[in-house]
Design brief:
The chain is of the alpha+beta class. 24% of the residues lie in helices and 44% in strands. The chain has helices at 30-38, 43-52, 89-101, 103-106, 171-179, and strands spanning 4-10, 15-20, 24-25, 56-63, 76-83, 111-121, 124-137, 140-153, 156-165, 182-183. The strands form two sheets. It has a seven-stranded antiparallel β-sheet, sandwiched between helices. The longest helix has 13 residues, at 89-101. The model is unreliable at 29-42 (pLDDT under 50).
Length: 185
């Protein structure tokens, strides 16, 4: 484990990842907690849960600092589970590429540092991309760097997003954290 104090595990999903040392787990809403405690997450139930959450189910989010402790971008690791309606990995990759196309409309300076490409996590084929863009916040503008891994598993996919800013570079930590990922099918 790289600078990790614990490993986050969701045994119902069959997912685990190291939590960086001193990073904070975001609070989950009572509804999601209640569902996790009372629903056995077989494939049909998991699909329904994702559908109920508008196609996205938050697995876990880590913040480097308390959310209200500073202005600007807080380095974040966010893992969500989404529906995957594609029939092949090639279709999945194209779908992920299309999902980035709207970013230019939202962030005019959006650019890829690394175009969507095929990588592997825990022996599973995935799509990786790295991009940056400028966010405008109350305290001015800040350049943000995003690393995204999209890992298809059965009828869904994990989207693992790492975010930091030009003020901090956590990319080496992010690379070590992604190596700790364990995804059961």
């Amino acid at each position: 484990m790289c600078n990790a104090q614990t490993t986050f595990k969701n045994e119902r999903l069959g997912f685990s990842i190291d939590q960086p040392n001193k990073w904070i787990v975001a609070e989950e809403g009572e509804t999601v907690q209640n569902l996790e405690e009372h629903i056995k997450l077989d494939k049909a139930t998991l699909k329904k849960l994702i559908d109920t959450h508008k196609g996205t189910y938050q697995v876990v989010t880590f913040f480097k600092y308390p959310i209200n402790s500073r202005h600007g971008v807080i380095p974040t690791i966010k893992i969500v589970l989404k529906n995957n309606g594609t029939a092949s990995f090639e279709d999945f990759k194209k779908s992920i590429e299309r999902s980035f196309s709207g970013m230019k409309d939202i962030f005019p300076d959006f650019k890829f540092i690394e175009q969507p490409t095929v990588k592997y996590i825990d022996g599973k084929q995935c799509v990786f991309a790295m991009c940056d863009y400028t966010l405008t916040a109350h305290n001015g503008q800040e350049k943000v760097k995003i690393m995204v891994y999209a890992v298809p598993v059965n009828d869904s996919f994990y989207q693992i997003t790492f975010m930091d800013s030009e003020k901090e570079d956590n990319s080496k930590l992010f690379e070590k954290i992604i190596e700790s990922t364990d995804i059961q099918e």
